[in-house]
Specification:
The complex is a heterodimer of chains A (413) and B (297). Chain A has three domains: 1-27; 31-155 and 292-363, Rossmann fold (3-Layer(aba) Sandwich), CATH 3.40.50.2300; 159-286 and 375-411, Response regulator (Rossmann fold). Chain A is 40% helix and 22% strand. Chain A has twelve helices and 18 strands. In chain A, strand 11 (260-263), helix 9 and strand 12 (283-286) form a beta-alpha-beta unit. The radius of gyration of chain A is 24 Å and the shape is elongated. The relative contact order of chain B is 0.20. In chain B, helix 3 (47-63) crosses helix 10 (225-239). Chain B has twelve helices and two strands, in the order αααααββααααααα. In chain B, strands 1-2 form a two-stranded antiparallel ribbon. Chain B has one domain (4-291): Orthogonal Bundle (ABC transporter involved in vitamin B12 uptake, BtuC). Classes of the chains: A alpha/beta (413), B mainly alpha (297).
Chain lengths: 413, 297
């Protein structure tokens, strides 16, 4: 009897196991759901931006599902996302990607937060031929490796501040300018630096300070003292939020006068809030701003998106959320054009993507980067103690005129 | 661009002052480390994270609308109890073990602290504003942020107070006795358990002060503690244990060395240069001690 019972249990569990593995291998589409997978930083050092990314994804999933979902072969499907927390750790992210694909049977991936983690996941998705639309990895090296299943809705990192150099040259009457630059030694910032080097060569500008900041560094006094001594036309700083906050703190304390200051990560650092008037006139590169005039039928305009986002999550959407939402719109569009759940058909449809979203135009270049959308620059401007970011370039969307040159500290109140 | 510093002599003044002011702040953190290292024979990997926690306390009162400079009084008081609790919870179990166990334990504490701070304060980089302005010297060519001068001043003040306290007070003498010979102190009636807890508390309080000063001079983030640990470790290695003047001098020396390395070797070699110096000093000390037929303790 005991033996029979044991046999019975074994039999049942074997069947259950088979069933589980059977269903999971078809988990790409379960019933009326298209299942997407994403490893995302919910804890660890990227957790705040990880949450912005997740909120962006969720917002778009809700919206698309509510507005009828995705139509494939005459049937309506809804999106569903499986999330895992990658703890801001690239190794963990790669493991989770593997798990999503092999155990959960996910056939379509959404990207994680940051270039570093996207770099860790891309080889995995590539190996299993899983199309991944990512919205938060801008590093140029992602797009030079010949990945075939990687698609990014954002502009690559080297484009971040090129516009700023063009602007400086334009203000200088078309002549080359003197550039001082300080970049953190990480993949993203160094890509931004390469963009500046290209722009300098193209415009005949000269780079007179080229500092590489160690990752541990939280003091830029030496770099800024050099800047004070050599008086460049433009100062470019990129070192994530820490770099942006440190730069503004020390520029204002050391009274460094430069006609133009260009940076990255100003909005992530909440520069205008944390430093107030000290950050006025800083130029910042951004992937998106709510005042841009792009439109789509799901979110309407950028302003409408910002309003809905604010209602749902209680804060103004940073560009990390907007680009994440756009990734879902791209997937929906690709599924409908492919009219199939075949991975390669979806991948081919992604290659042919050419659409406008509230976030911007999207068309993928040969490396998978978005080539249809320019970077924008905004400038921090203050009224009294109230500071905000206003778009100043490209001129098509500029809400304000670019203020140049920055007044000297002795003239600023 | 090469050797700009030699073309513009004012840069040398600027670099020296920057280095010294920052070095004094680091020396304060290092002094706490030297103190508890000397007394308890524990290398505290969580030192930097205690500093950052102290900084967040100052940042929190800043968010409540109180000037962050008050953090240099409030933060050490809270941090003293944090240190005391930490001792009762974890450190008392590893205090008699070998150095490796204590490194592992404090490394664990560091990770827990980082995650807790991330959880409570968020992963954003934050700064507190002191609005202290700037002092200009030599026709505006040398600028000194008043917040840095303030932080150096406060560091010196607390360090001097601590030295007097260690010399004069009952607890201070008990701490020094325990540092010299814990067993003998115990036999003579010193409650070493209490001394250890107090030492760890005082160390945490020093970290609290340094953290409050960092919140108004530099930036705060849950994961930037480690560089402070490494820096104070280095200062202690160079200066030796229980020698405040040496800690102060080596702190300022390292600050200066770093600033000048930045100008001469380039910013990217700044931290590397400090590590090279550390290797050089360790080898040199080893060499000197082997001549004297002693051993490096």
């Amino acid at each position: 009897m005991n033996k029979i019972a044991k046999l019975f249990v074994t039999f049942i569990s074997a069947i259950t196991l088979t069933l589980v593995s059977f269903t999971s291998s078809f988990a790409k589409v379960e019933g009326e759901y298209i299942v997407l997978g994403s490893a995302i930083s919910l804890t660890g050092k990227y957790s705040s931006n990880g949450v912005h990314t997740q909120n962006g994804y969720n917002m778009a999933v809700d919206r698309i599902n509510k507005m009828g979902g995705v139509e494939v072969q005459g049937k309506k499907y809804k999106f569903e996302i499986i999330y895992y927390d990658d703890e801001s750790n690239p190794k963990r992210a790669a493991q989770l990607a593997e798990r999503l694909i092999k155990q959960d049977g996910v056939h379509y991936m959404l990207g994680p937060y940051s270039s570093g983690l996207t770099k860790a996941i891309a080889p995995v998705t590539e190996k299993y031929k899983i199309p991944m639309v990512e919205a938060n990895g801008a590093s140029r090296s992602l797009f030079t490796k010949g990945y075939k299943y990687l698609f990014a809705v954002l502009s690559p990192a080297n484009q971040y501040l090129e516009v700023a150099i063009d602007l400086a040259v334009e203000k200088n009457g078309g002549k080359g300018v003197k550039i001082a630059q300080a970049f953190e030694q990480d993949a993203f910032s160094q890509d931004v630096r390469l963009g500046i080097l290209d722009a300098a060569k193209r415009t005949g500008s000269e780079i007179i300070i080229d500092d590489k900041l160690p990752k541990e560094l939280n003091d830029m006094a030496a770099t800024l003292a050099k800047v004070k001594a050599v008086k460049p036309d433009v100062l470019v700083v990129s070192g994530h939020t820490k770099g942006a906050l440190t730069a503004i703190r020390q520029i204002s304390e050391m009274k460094v006068d430069v006609p133009m200051l260009a940076m990255t990560h100003c909005d992530a650092a909440k520069l205008s809030k944390q430093h107030g008037k000290k950050s006025e006139f800083a130029l910042c590169a951004s992937q998106w701003h709510k005042n841009l005039s792009y439109k789509d039928k799901f979110f309407g305009s950028g302003k409408k998106y910002a309003k809905d986002f604010q209602k749902e999550f209680g804060y103004d959407p940073p560009y990390q959320s907007a680009e994440s939402s756009a990734a879902l719109l791209v997937f929906k569009d690709a599924f409908e054009r492919a009219n199939s759940f075949d991975r390669d058909a979806v991948r081919d449809a992604l290659v042919d993507t050419e659409m406008q979203t509230f976030y911007g135009n999207i068309k993928f270049g040969p490396g998978g980067q978005n080539v249809a959308k320019p970077m924008i620059l905004f400038q921090v401007r203050c009224k009294g103690d109230d500071c905000e970011n206003r778009v100043v370039a490209p001129t098509k969307w500029a809400s304000d005129k670019f203020y140049h040159p920055i007044p000297k500290w002795s003239d600023r109140s | 661009m090469d050797f700009l510093i030699f073309k513009a002599p004012m840069l040398m003044v600027q670099a020296s002052l920057d280095g010294i002011l920052l070095g004094i702040l680091f020396a304060l953190i290092a002094y706490g480390m030297a103190l508890q290292w000397g007394v308890m024979n524990i290398i505290n990997i969580a030192q930097g994270d205690l500093v950052i926690l102290g900084g967040y306390i100052a940042y929190t009162i800043y968010l409540w609308g109180i000037h962050p400079a008050w953090g240099v009084i409030i933060s050490p008081i809270i941090m003293f109890f944090v240190g005391w609790g930490l001792y009762k919870l974890v450190i008392n179990k590893v205090v008699d073990r070998d150095l490796f166990i204590s490194i592992l334990a404090t490394f664990g504490i560091a990770i827990v602290f980082q995650q807790l701070m991330n959880f409570i304060f968020g992963a954003d980089v934050v700064v507190a504003q002191s609005e202290y302005g700037t002092t200009m010297l030599f026709d505006n060519s040398v600028t000194l942020p008043n917040s840095k001068i303030f932080s150096a001043f406060i560091s010196v003040l607390y360090a001097v107070a601590l030295v007097i306290y260690m010399k004069k007070s009952r607890l201070g003498r008990a701490i020094r006795a325990t540092a010299q010979n814990a067993r003998a102190a115990k036999i003579l009636g010193v409650d070493t358990e209490k001394v250890y807890a107090a030492t760890f508390g005082i160390n945490a309080a020093l970290c609290g002060i340094a953290g409050a000063l960092i919140s108004i001079t530099l930036t705060l983030h849950p994961y930037v503690g480690l560089p402070y640990t490494v820096r104070s470790f280095m200062i202690v290695i160079v200066a030796g244990l229980g020698n405040l003047p040496a800690v102060a001098v080596s702190g300022m020396g390292l600050g200066l060395f770093e600033e000048f390395a930045d100008y001469i070797l380039g910013t990217e070699f700044r931290i590397g240069a400090v590590f090279m110096l550390l290797v050089f000093i360790l080898v040199y000390r080893r060499f000197k001690l082997s001549k004297k037929r002693e051993y490096l303790k």
